[in-house]
Design a protein that fits this description.
four-stranded antiparallel sheet, alpha+beta, DNA Binding (I), subunit A, 17% helix, 225 residues
Length: 225
Amino acid sequence: MRRTYGMISQRFGKLTVIDQVKSRRNQKYWLCLCDCGILKEIRGSHLRSGHSTSCGCTNSRHKNLSGSRIAYFQVVSKIAVEDMNNNKRGYYLCQCDCGKEFVRRSSDLNSTLSCGCKRVPPPIMFGPTNPSWKGGYSDDIRKTPEYYAWRKKILSAKQCRCCADTQSLEAHHIFSIDKNPDKITSEENGCCLCQTCHQLFHLEYGYGNNNLSQLEEFLKNFAGV
């Protein structure tokens, strides 16, 4: 049997062996203290072979980010924080522009915007911004704040332009938005119709290629019906 007690206090690169910990998958593991102050459990064979010579702080992808400026905060310094098993892990102390200090793991820094005081809503991906876009008109435009504001403005008429009904009102696009995407939220391209008149209009003239002449003809023939 290989004697392992002599491993304690030995140095392997920047690592000093502190104690033996529970074996995993028939492999002996050792608790090591890195010169940077981080404690890490490392397989004994990796220490003896030279595969592990630090906690990872010497790797280019683990470079010290202290002093870096990211989004709305400044990375102040690298610190060691104890986890639930009393093992020290690498974290960063950060200073938000609002003045609040907070701690983040290095792997989370680039995805962090602030201490939490600033939030960015996820983008609404419709039309050309959607990777599945194939051209034409996207119905997702109806979910945008601009569309809701346009609809509210059109419905502020409070009565159907055709029959003067005040119930079940809908916002109708005078010029079809599939052919006129620049007029989707144009106030001049809206007309307030009740649900019945709106359906009747599209039964007469279909969907697509609608225009002002069709609306004027519809109002002339069906007004007050």
